[in-house]
Design a protein that fits this description.
With 209 residues, the chain is mainly alpha-helical. It has eight helices and three strands; from the N terminus they run H-E-E-E-H-H-H-H-H-H-H. It has helices at residues 6-28, 60-63, 70-85, 100-116, 121-124, 132-141, 145-168, 195-207, and strands spanning 31-37, 45-50, 53-59. A three-stranded mixed sheet has the order 1-3-2. Helix 3 packs across helix 7, helix 6 (132-141) crosses helix 7 and helix 7 runs antiparallel to helix 8 (195-207). The radius of gyration is 16 Å and the shape is globular. The mean pLDDT is 96.
Length: 209
């Protein structure tokens, strides 16, 4: 397990709700509800929709997983919000939920960017080792230390989620920024992609200008 506490778990959810709740109510006439079950050891999160309710459920088992950082936890919340607002392609099983890869893309390109754009991201990364590939690509897209730090923070949050997927899939290959998946698909994949593909998508969302 990591060192996340129940208070941090609940505070992260409250901050997320307060950040997006008002705009969802204003723009969609709907209520954002996040159900956080700290006591459950289930390693999962999912999105649901009902009449005028945008719902996310997330479990303590995921929050406490060894691969999940505090920023990674927020990235999971953003991924679930991406199922609601990520756009096309949509899942084949329903007409409202964005596909897994699209929800990942939304998480960094829109959601985490909006949450952290006015934070001191350089301070947030002060104890982190930033992979060279992430540094280079963020510097290529953005100008200025503040913008680059935001990009780097989003990338590391995505990597945390990719590490989680690697563990859940019992995958021996570590996902890295330097080793993008070169698979070319010929049909839409509506399932959860492998860890490297997940990281690639988070990464591309982070460096999207």
């Amino acid at each position: 397990a990591n060192d996340m506490t129940e208070k941090e778990f609940k505070d992260s959810i409250k901050h997320f709700e307060k950040f997006f709740g008002p705009s969802i109510e204003r723009d969609y006439n709907a209520e954002l509800i996040v159900f956080g079950s700290w006591g459950s050891n289930t390693v999962n999160a999912y999105a649901e929709r009902a009449s005028k309710k945008i719902m996310i459920t997330i479990y303590g088992g995921l929050a406490r997983h060894k691969s999940v950082t505090k920023d990674g936890f927020t990235a999971v919340l953003c991924h679930e919000l991406g199922h609601h607002f990520g756009g096309y392609p949509k899942k084949s099983t329903n007409r409202w939920s964005s596909a897994e890869g699209q929800a990942d893309y939304y998480a960094t390109m829109k959601c985490l960017r909006r949450i952290w754009e006015n934070e001191n991201n350089e301070l947030a990364l002060s104890s982190e080792v930033i992979p060279e590939k992430l540094k280079v690509e963020c510097a290529h897209t953005y100008r200025g230390a503040k913008s680059e730090a935001l990009c780097q923070r989003m990338g590391l949050a995505g990597r945390s989620v990719a590490y989680l997927i690697q563990d859940l899939d019992h995958d021996s290959i570590e996902p890295k920024f330097e080793t993008p998946d070169d698979l070319v698909v010929r049909a839409m994949n509506y399932l959860h992609p492998f860890a490297q593909c997940r990281l690639d998508t988070f990464f591309q969302g982070a460096i999207c200008p």
